[in-house]
Amino acid sequence: MNMELEIRMEDKTDSDRELKHYWSECIGAGRAKEALRADWQQQFSEAVKQFGIKYVRFHGVFHDDMFVYRDSYGSGFGPDVKLPEVLYTFSYVDKVYDFILSRGVYPFVELGFMPTGIATQPNTLFWWRANCCPPTDMNKWCELVERTVEHWVERYGVECVRKWRFEVWNEPNLVPYFWTGTRKQYFELYDATVRVIKKIDDKLMVGGPSTSVFVPDDRYKGETEDRSVEAATAQAQDYDALNWQPVWIREFLDFCRQKELPVDFLTTHLYPTDNAFGANGEMVGISRHADATYEDLLKLNKIIKESSYPNAELHITEWSHSPSSRDFMHDTVYAAVYIVRAYLKSIGLTDSMSYWTFSDIFEEGGAGIGAFHGGFGMINEQGIHKPVYHAFRMMERLGDKILHISERGIITTGKESGSAAGIFFIIRMS
């Protein structure tokens, strides 16, 4: 993040500077259990080869279907078998991470969701019934994290695990969907989690708060969402004239400063959309303008620079033009042009911006209906490449030195090869 915040796209011409392929630093996927599928692994291997992916992030490492935490075992053990009160089983997680690491990719570990055995409100989200809630006992959560991270250090070596990133939870501001607790309870979860991980090795990288989207009102100023303040947003005549701000980022940094907690990186999710509730209780879908991501990143950079953690990395751990897994725009060439333009415009403003997701093998809403159902992926379930896939292939063929960049594209060269590569596109701005 070495770009001056004042630089705008039209000023980035003939800059003769380094180009980090930050769009391929991390890629999103659905949940851990899906990574056990042969077709998921085939598509992932293809994406890594084509795009040079460095990290992958997904939900559900601690979900019940991965069997990491078990306090009940079913039948078949016999009356004389004495089992521990809690059994930690890493065989499924090992299969997933062994495969990912074998492809030269590191895990961007999203720590969640809550195992049923320590969930305060079990089975709250998706058809696979994710437990998105605080633990019944923070000590049991801490033991779960400690046992798991220690297992990874033992299995893969501390030098390897130091290259990973540990993100505490996913979108805790979205109550009651991804978190049924309060903001304070999430901050307490981060407090407990970062202390446990740093106790294992203080060079392990931990961050948060993994919140979702920017909003232009005070709905998230309190402990939980206040929908009564959203009516003005829903009724606005010009959404882009509103003052869009990140969720919980300043509050999270202030909390960590007060508690003297480490923050190795900040994470949040940028979608250029919003859903605001009107005075009548009906939800209004909002689409922001094409430069929303760029403007949001500028604000995040400023917040980090002025905070007590000016050297913290910034990772956008989910990003796309839409947060819906049933948006047919995902399947079109328009999405490809949008993401190329947004990535090029935002060069230097974030350490990674993870496209959500690489594959339509994604089951939050159940299996997709039909080959093209508006799924998040660059590749559909049958292995067909969508326009966004080809956009990523073209971006990955860019060099590592910028010769020229403008509103219409980029020309690069490779420092070693000396060959030139560029991307240009035609856009129509309203």
Structure description:
The structure is a single chain. Strand 12 and strand 13 form a beta hairpin. The chain has helices spanning 38-51, 91-102, 138-156, 158-161, 183-200, 231-235, 249-259, 292-305, 333-345, 387-396, and strands at 17-18, 26-31, 55-59, 69-70, 87-88, 106-111, 165-168, 206-212, 214-215, 245-246, 265-270, 273-277, 283-287, 313-319, 352-355, 401-406, 409-413, 420-424. Helix 3 (138-156) runs parallel beside helix 5 (183-200) and helix 9 runs parallel beside helix 10 (387-396). It contains 10 helices and 18 strands. The radius of gyration is 22 Å and the shape is globular. The chain has an 8-stranded parallel beta sheet. A 4-stranded antiparallel beta sheet has the order 1-16-17-18, with no helix packed on it. The protein has a two-stranded antiparallel ribbon with strand order 4-5. 28% of the residues lie in helices and 19% in strands. It is of the alpha/beta class and 430 residues long.
Keywords:
single chain, 430 residues, alpha/beta, 18 strands, 28% helix, disordered N terminus
What's the SSE blueprint?
Elements: E1 17-18, E2 26-31, H1 38-51, E3 55-59, E4 69-70, E5 87-88, H2 91-102, E6 106-111, H3 138-156, H4 158-161, E7 165-168, H5 183-200, E8 206-212, E9 214-215, H6 231-235, E10 245-246, H7 249-259, E11 265-270, E12 273-277, E13 283-287, H8 292-305, E14 313-319, H9 333-345, E15 352-355, H10 387-396, E16 401-406, E17 409-413, E18 420-424
Helix pairs in contact: 3-5, 9-10
